[in-house]
Each structure stands twice: as structure tokens, then as C-alpha cells.
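Quiz preparation item.
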């Protein structure tokens, strides 16, 4: 039995428009900028705080990885929080970014800094589950890929911003300012968040049907709120017949395959080395042969600027070319660039043109990651599971992602120092090859699919069934009509007949 309908508390839009949907995407993007800034700020600060506190390579790695440990805890609890409190209230916890960012800048000892960065990591871990979920559940299916990928654009923009800030502050070694500046956007993002409604699917999960209808009308004027609400409620009722929303259901058929996919994607996304570049770029550029803070802080900013362009490109093509084309082309390019770096380091040709070839390989590797893995992980995290498992599934994916992130953050400095760059980047190349094979085998094409209808793919053993939950056939034929709808064209739930 569905929960009783509660009185409406969601704001009523003055007229059907896309204004609310745009505000949701924009606010989620600001959260992404803050996350990106916090992720990238340590790359410059670490050089100077290591000198101030006299840190070894292992200790410097722990300053990075302690944040990721906090991320893991935050991601583990985020699924339950977003279901219990709501997607939007959970995102308001991003306000704690401001407090912990400011405390990071004021830390008198490395122990205090580690504690504060762990707590900062918890709030980040919560937000990186809640924000993409909130965006995905509040965006029309035809725009969902671009809207969620836009969160990655914001993350890369935040990293790019922090590299330019680090470069500007590197002359005086102002690591405290580098870390503390994130407090400003962290505090400001709360204002628009408080004015937004929660996602329609969360309202329906709690039985607040009228709230869900109002939000649907405000985020997509073409949708039929009654038909869409009915479709989501059917999905929720189907899930309640099982043990919905539990880890036990995720590791049993029919969702075992989806769970393996999201765990694998989350893990491979990070273990293939992107945050080695993000966290330790000044050290990597010094290994390449560049010298001086001017080059070693400015060049990473240029790399991220190129990556930002690649991420924007993914934003425009992900709903046109499809998820798989974008994902696999990005991973394939990463593999080629890592092979180039391994050869350059292994043959010791890093001089003259070789130095700039290494720079180009780093830039293209980072851009390819953000075009493929970086943009698509948020999309797949929000699409892979039905409504009652969606937030938990996103939490599981991000937890696997952050475990791999911790491994890279903690051990890369020691591997680079002990084994050398050839082994470090050669190892990443081998891992990218495994990731490519895994994604070719497992990644589904979900372009243009309703979130509820994607459930049918996993229930059918990783194949699209002949008849989808909305009554259309896999070939795009409405039963009994003989009319082809075409790939990616909305079904009757999105654009009801007039």
C-alpha cells in the first residue's frame, strides 16, 4: 500500500517553465565547484605545508588520503540520509564545507589538519552522492545526461580555479589561504538550496503526491505530472514487493549485475590514476623536467583548463552520441596517453621536445578522463538502479570510487619516489586496459531512457527486453500502433498524447 498523501509544502510555480529545473542544475553545479576546489586545493598547498611541518612522502600522502577516508564514510551514510531526510536537506550539509575549510586554514599542527580534513571529507562524501542524485531525479529524461554531466563540468571548473589560485599564491607559499578560500562558495550555496523543492521521486517515496506533481510541472512543462507520478508509483510499488532499498537486494538477482557494474565503474574510475595527477601535479611536472613554482603550478592549471573544455564537450554529446561512445572513447584515449608516458619515462627521452610530449600526454590523459569516466560516472550512478535502490546504489558506487581514490592518494608519492615514474604510469596503463575490457562488456546504453524503465534492462539479465515497462517495444513501437518513436524520443510518459 502506498503511503498516505501529505499536505503540500512544495512551492507552487507561477506558470509552467524550466526555471526551477535550471536553478536545480545551477545549484548542484555550485556544489560541484566547491567539491572540485577542495579536491584540487591540496595539490598546491601540500608543497608548502610539507615544508612547514617537515612531512615525509608517506605523511604527505596521508594529508591527502585522510580527506578521502572522510569521503568514504560520508558516501556510506549518504544513501540512507538522502532517503530519510530528502535529497535537498542532505545537500544543505554542504554548509559544513565552510566551517571545515576555514578550520583547515587555521590548523596549528598537522594532527589538527588531519582531523579537520577528515571531517571536511565526510561532508564532501555526502554531497557527492546527494547532488548528482538530486539533479538526475529533477531533470527530464531527454536532458538528464547533460544535466548530470554538468556536475562534472562544475567539478573540473573548481579544480581549474584552484590551480590558478595556487599559482597566484605560490610566490609567497600561502597554503593556508589556498585551503581556506573554499569557505566562501560553501556558505553561499546554502541560500539557493533553501529556496528549492526536493526531487519528485523523493516526494513520491514519502507519499507526497501533490508535491511531486507540482515539482514535475515546474521542472518540465511538457510532462504530464499525473501520468509520470503514476509511472513512478508503479515502480515504487513493484520494489516494495521485494526487500527494496537494502544491500541484500543489491547482491541478489535481478540487480546483482547492476551492482557489479557500479562497483567496477566506481573503482576503475579512480584506480586508473586521475587523482595522482590532481593531487600531485607539481611533483609530476618536476619529474617530467619542468622546474620552478611558476611552471609547476601554472602548467597544471593549463591541463585542467583543457580538461574543462573536454568536459563541456561531453556535456553536449552525451545525450546525442550515447553513453557508451563517450565513455569508451575517453578510456581508450587514457590508455594511449599512459603508454606514451611510460615509454617517455622508460626510454629517458624527457628532454627538449620530450618534455613537452610528456606535458601533452598528461593534458590529454586528464582531458580524456573527464570526457569519459569523469562525466559518465555521475550519470550511471544516478541511472543504474530503480527508485528505492537509487540513492543506496549511488552511495555504493561512490564508496568503491573513494576506496580506489584513497589507495592512489596514499601510495602514489611513495611509488613515484621508490619505483619511479615508469612503473607508476605503466601500472596505471595496465589498470586502464582492464577497465576498458570491463566497460565494453558491462556498460549499458541508457540514452533517452526513463529512470524507471532502465530497471527492465537489469531485470532482463543485462539486455533490453522486447517490451518495456511503459508499454513500448524495444524497437520503439507503441503496441498496436505500428508507429516508430525513434531512438531517444520520449515515450508517452514524457509527452502524453494531446
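Solution:
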Amino acid at each position: 500500500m502506498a503511503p498516505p498523501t501529505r499536505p503540500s509544502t512544495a512551492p507552487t510555480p507561477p506558470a509552467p517553465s524550466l526555471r526551477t529545473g535550471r536553478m536545480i542544475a545551477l545549484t548542484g553545479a555550485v556544489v560541484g565547484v566547491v567539491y572540485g576546489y577542495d579536491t584540487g586545493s591540496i595539490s598546491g598547498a601540500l608543497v608548502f605545508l610539507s615544508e612547514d611541518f617537515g612531512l615525509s612522502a608517506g605523511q604527505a600522502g596521508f594529508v591527502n588520503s585522510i580527506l578521502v577516508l572522510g569521503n568514504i564514510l560520508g558516501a556510506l551514510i549518504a544513501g540512507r540520509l538522502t532517503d530519510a531526510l530528502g535529497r535537498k536537506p542532505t545537500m544543505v550539509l554542504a554548509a559544513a564545507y565552510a566551517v571545515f575549510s576555514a578550520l583547515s586554514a587555521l590548523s596549528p599542527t598537522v594532527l589538527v589538519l588531519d582531523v579537520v580534513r577528515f571531517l571536511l571529507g565526510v561532508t564532501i562524501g555526502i554531497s557527492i552522492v546527494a547532488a548528482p542524485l538530486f539533479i538526475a531525479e529533477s531533470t527530464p529524461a531527454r536532458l538528464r545526461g547533460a544535466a548530470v554531466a554538468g556536475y562534472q563540468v562544475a567539478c573540473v571548473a573548481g579544480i581549474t580555479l584552484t590551480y590558478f589560485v595556487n599559482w597566484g599564491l605560490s610566490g609567497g607559499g600561502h597554503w593556508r589561504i589556498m585551503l581556506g578560500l573554499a569557505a566562501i562558495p560553501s556558505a553561499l550555496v546554502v541560500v539557493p538550496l533553501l529556496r528549492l523543492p526536493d526531487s519528485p521521486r523523493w516526494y513520491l517515496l514519502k507519499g507526497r503526491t501533490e508535491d511531486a506533481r507540482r515539482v514535475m510541472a515546474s521542472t518540465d512543462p511538457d510532462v504530464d505530472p499525473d501520468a509520470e507520478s503514476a509511472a513512478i508509483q508503479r515502480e515504487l510499488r513493484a520494489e516494495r514487493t521485494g526487500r527494496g532499498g537494502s544491500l541484500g537486494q543489491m547482491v541478489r538477482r535481478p540487480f546483482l549485475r547492476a551492482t557489479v557494474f557500479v562497483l567496477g565503474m566506481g573503482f576503475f574510475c579512480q584506480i586508473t590514476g586521475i587523482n595522482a595527477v590532481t593531487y600531485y601535479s607539481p611533483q609530476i611536472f618536476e619529474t617530467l623536467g619542468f622546474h620552478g613554482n611558476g611552471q609547476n603550478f601554472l602548467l597544471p592549471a593549463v591541463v585542467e583548463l583543457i580538461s574543462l573544455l573536454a568536459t563541456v564537450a561531453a556535456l553536449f554529446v552525451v545525450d546525442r552520441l550515447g553513453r557508451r561512445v563517450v565513455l569508451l572513447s575517453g578510456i581508450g584515449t587514457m590508455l594511449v596517453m599512459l603508454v606514451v608516458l611510460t615509454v617517455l619515462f622508460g626510454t629517458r627521452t624527457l628532454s627538449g621536445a620530450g618534455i613537452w610530449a610528456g606535458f601533452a600526454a598528461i593534458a590529454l590523459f586528464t582531458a580524456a578522463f573527464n570526457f569519459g569516466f569523469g562525466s559518465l560516472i555521475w550519470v550511471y550512478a544516478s541511472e543504474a538502479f530503480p527508485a528505492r535502490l537509487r540513492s543506496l546504489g549511488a552511495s555504493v558506487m561512490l564508496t568503491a570510487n573513494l576506496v580506489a581514490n584513497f589507495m592512489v592518494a596514499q601510495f602514489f608519492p611513495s611509488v613515484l619516489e621508490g619505483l619511479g615514474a615508469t612503473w607508476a604510469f605503466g601500472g596505471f596503463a595496465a589498470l586502464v586496459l582492464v577497465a576498458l575490457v570491463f566497460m565494453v562488456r558491462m556498460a549499458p546504453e541508457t540514452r533517452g531512457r526513463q529512470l524507471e524503465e532502465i530497471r527492465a534492462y537489469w531485470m532482463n539479465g543485462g539486455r533490453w527486453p522486447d517490451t518495456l515497462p511503459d508499454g513500448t517495444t524495444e524497437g520503439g513501437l507503441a503496441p498496436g500502433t505500428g508507429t516508430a518513436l525513434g531512438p531517444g524520443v520520449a515515450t508517452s510518459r514524457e509527452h502524453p498524447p494531446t
